[in-house]
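Handoff note, outgoing to incoming analyst
You'll be picking up this chain. Sequence as last confirmed:
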Amino acid sequence: MPTDSPGSGRGLDPHAAGDGDVLFAARVSTQGEQTLDHIGDDASRSSGLINYLMRDRHGSPFEHNSMTFYVQAPIFVFREFMRHRIASYNEESGRYKELRPVFYVPGPERKLTQVGKPGAYEFVDGTPEQTALVTAETQKVCREAYAAYQRMLDAGIAREVARIVLPLTIYSSMYVTMNARALMNFLSLRTKRDNASVPSFPQREIEMCADQMEAFWAGLMPLTHAAFEANGRVSP
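Most recent structure output, in case you need it:
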């Protein structure tokens, strides 16, 4: 049972995106096919254009690229992912394959108690006793549920029926494909940063996935990421 590791395993594998895609899309409005003549333009001019697009919220040039991430995380995290109807998803199916006994158990650094009222609350550290209780009860339920799942499979019950006893903390895997504009929208809501113009309060487990996705994206599109950071982490 992995502890405190949503998004881990084989990780997230992004493909096929770059700042050049944004530049081509933006310059075609004024240059047409001649936009290809500016592939080697000065980097500072490229950075300035991308920052201008981000600052003034000209969003469409950020849509002309595609990234695919392979994500492994608990199913309750996936349910939050799929609230974002700005991506394409293909998930591992419990109807067609036997699910592995891999479950998420919060680590000791996970804040456990909620203080305040709805809309104005924060999470604070739990006591050692609370941490021990969460660990023990989660592991107990996961072991019992997976044993029940196995008993039903052994009795010839269909996988799509047997899986109903499994908890939301079991891991699944999926491919997520989106463009940079969609990713910025996702990150603006699923990460908490002091420099964000609009504060966000994501559940910690999906933020752990979002942090890894952002790190890969920053390497793929450093100019776009820098402009996102400089302009308050607001999706254009």
